[in-house]
Design brief:
Blueprint: E1 9-10, H1 18-28, H2 37-50, E2 54-58, H3 61-71, E3 79-82, H4 89-96, E4 100-103, H5 115-123, E5 132-134, H6 145-155, E6 158-162, E7 170-172, E8 178-180, E9 189-193, E10 206-210, H7 213-223, E11 227-228, E12 245-246, H8 257-268, H9 270-288, E13 295-296, E14 308-311, H10 315-324, E15 327-328, H11 340-344, H12 353-361, E16 362-365, H13 373-387
Parallel strand pairs: 1-15, 3-4, 3-5, 5-6, 6-9
Antiparallel strand pairs: 2-10, 7-8, 9-10, 11-12, 13-14, 14-16
The structure holds pyridoxal-5'-phosphate.
């Protein structure tokens, strides 16, 4: 057991370089703090990185989800399917628009929504009973969107891919083509977050990607109050240079120039960060094979490793043991359907047994690009010591 004293080790943290600081300072000294040239530049570069037609920068991932639900026309009475093993926002966006959330249980090997169970559910109801599907690339493991698309086409659903955990992640489709998370080939819309623990960190920030021009235009409108100055869209005769119209009830969900400047420099290191995450995952995998009592979630070639999740019988014991050593592991997630808010809407503990069993044993170990090999070894040694391996 190593006796080195380490700084506290969180489960995730941002990595800010001098280039990041410079980019923000330059923007502070420019003419634009919000809605300047950095917004469009970040959108364009992000779209290129993901391999998608359109990208819309917004104030955070939750705003991204809200605008997606609005753009797809979610309304009271509509039903939308999502997973319980996600951050609450994946489900909440449906509620913002008055829709109803239907949680479907997970595949215990991956903790992703079980698309087989989604199919069973869809087959029990007439077409049109459900409106949409919000799959989540949980921990950075891409959902098989080819299968999801098939369901969506068969049952008339739209898809919002919550790709907050998976920028740069991908899976191989049945034709052997690489499908990058958020590339717009299979989902109608995809969303990302730039919260500090995510791959690209801007403090607050988010992005929506799509290949659908109709949705793209709607998102631009909704992002700024539903207001347009676009001559082609104006209904009434133009009354002068000041003229604009509020055509829909939108929001102020803009991402400021300063943060887009930070996003641009962060994005330049995205591949490097992703490579380091994958290396850390391989090192954890190697360390935990043959450790009885520790079961990592399944990996995959295109995994983006936002999280590295293990499952352990005495999860609470391990969590406390690591904390005493300044290792701040975390639990992702408390199943959303068990939150008091969703219980008030009729969901109960026991409704989704596989998600609840997963929650009872899951723990996310430190996973971020600036985690050093020595720090990781300290984490590994501590976990091993706890299980007596
Ligand atoms: C972080 C996250 C969000 C919300 O993003 P914010 O930028 O924090 O609003 C939504 N879904 C998932 C899966 C997330 O991890």
């Amino acid at each position: 057991m190593s006796t080195t004293v380490f700084r506290p080790i969180p489960y995730g943290r941002q990595h800010i370089t001098e280039a990041d600081v410079q980019a923000v300072v330059e923007t502070l000294q420019s003419d634009f703090l919000t809605q300047g040239p950095k917004v469009a530049e970040f959108e364009q570069r992000f779209a290129e990185y993901i391999g998608v037609e359109y990208a819309v920068a917004v104030s955070n991932g939750t705003a991204a989800l809200h605008l997606c639900a609005m753009a797809l026309g979610v309304q009271p009475g509509q039903r939308v399917i999502t997973t319980p093993i996600t951050f609450a926002a994946s489900a909440n966006c449906v509620r913002y628009c008055g829709g109803e959330v239907h949680f479907v249980d997970i595949d215990p090997a991956t903790a992703l929504i079980d698309l087989g169970k989604v199919r069973q559910l869809l087959e029990q109801h007439p077409k049109g009973y459900f409106s949409g599907l919000i799959p989540v690339d949980f921990a950075g493991l891409p959902v098989n969107l080819e299968q999801a698309r098939q369901l969506a086409d068969e049952f008339g659903l739209w898809i919002i891919e919550d790709a907050c955990h998976a920028p740069g992640g991908s899976f191989l489709d049945s034709q052997g083509r690489e499908q990058r998370c958020g590339n717009g080939q299979l989902a109608d819309l995809a969303i990302f977050s730039f919260h500090p623990v995510k791959h690209i960190a801007t403090g607050e920030g988010g992005m929506i990607t799509t290949n659908r021009r109709d949705l793209y235009e709607q998102l631009l409108l909704l992002r700024t109050h539903g207001i347009t100055r676009d001559a082609a869209r104006l209904g009434l005769p133009d009354e002068g240079g000041w003229y604009y119209e509020m055509q829909e009830l939108g929001y102020n969900y803009r991402m400021p120039d300063m943060l887009c400047a930070l996003g641009i420099t962060q994005l330049q290191r995205a591949d490097e960060g992703l490579e380091r995450r994958r290396q850390l995952a391989r090192q954890y995998d190697a360390a935990f094979t043959e450790v009885p009592g520790i079961t990592p979630l399944a990996g995959a070639a295109g995994h983006a490793y936002h999280l590295y999740v293990i499952q352990v019988e005495d999860r609470r014991g391990l969590y406390d043991f690591l904390r005493a050593r300044q290792i701040f592991a975390q639990v992702h997630y408390i199943p959303v359907h068990t939150m008091p808010y969703y219980q008030q809407l009729g969901w109960q503990r026991g409704d989704l047994p596989l998600a609840e069993a997963y929650y009872a044993r899951c723990l996310s170990l430190p996973m971020f690009p600036s985690l050093s090999d020595e720090e990781q070894q300290y984490v590994i040694d501590s976990v091993r010591e706890f299980v007596g391996a």
